[in-house]
Amino acid sequence: MARITASVYTSHVPAIGAALDLGKSGEPYWQPVFKGYEASKAWMQANTPDVIFLVYNDHATAFSLDMIPTFAIGCADEFQPADEGWGPRPVPVVKGHPELAAHIAHSVIQDDFDLTIVNKMDVDHGLTVPLSLMFGQPAADKFAWPCPIIPFAVNVVQYPVPSGRRCFNLGRAIRKAIASFDRPLNVQIWGTGGMSHQLQGPRAGLINREFDTAFLDQLIADPEALAKKPHIDYVREAGSEGIELVMWLVARGAMGDESSAGAPKVVHRFYHVPASNTAVGHLILENT
Ligand code: DHB
Ligand code: FE
Predict the structure, then answer these.
(1) 3-266 maps to CATH 3.40.830.10
(2) Any catalytic annotation for residue 197?
(3) With 90 as the cut, is the pLDDT of residue 190 above it?
């Protein structure tokens, strides 16, 4: 059977992608950010999974105000890096895993979560920047991500957005779905976005280190209690785009430590301010 071995949490700041693509990662501004991911890249090399289930949000790239799915699962063979206004990032095409994605869709929908099935979708910085942070830039002679990726988009852009509690319970349903897939796959689940940031209005530039630190502590130690935090608390304390953090609860809900061998192991934790307008947070948890 397939199983979830680890979860990865990270911010997805688009300027990080631009810094990598334009060869600026060695600059003093960016050095501390990329330093925080060096251990993660080494860990990824040693722990490359068979599939990544990547929870992220689309930023009006694949979806517009014409159509806003709350939860969308990518079931295609492949997904193109999107053009977000400066041309597509020079990163590989994302290869999907249609069989596992279809199985998860079936199981999770029968478990009463409404997913939108997506068979064609471009993927923006919300998905490609976490891949770049964890894998680095793929070499020109082997221009591919190291494993298939199932994109899972959550609407955190247009209100109403799903609650943290629903995201956490959805993670539990995804865990159950993966555990019932009849192939011995090592699967990682990633939760992306956040941490505190606000991109617009009078509070643009808001960062709340205290909130972020408490969020990381509670995500590790008591995610079920954290899942009760109402969405308005994220917006008030972590800024309008801080709501992206509910996606971390999908990944944490899929770790399933309530039902199995105890709390996951913290492999790596990192926090840095600033990167663009954003506090960067990052965590790797392994199932024990
Ligand atoms: C920034 C952060 C984001 O999460 C995003 O989607 C766009 C921009 C920023 O910090 O600039
Ligand atoms: Fe974002």
Answers:
(1) yes
(2) yes
(3) yes
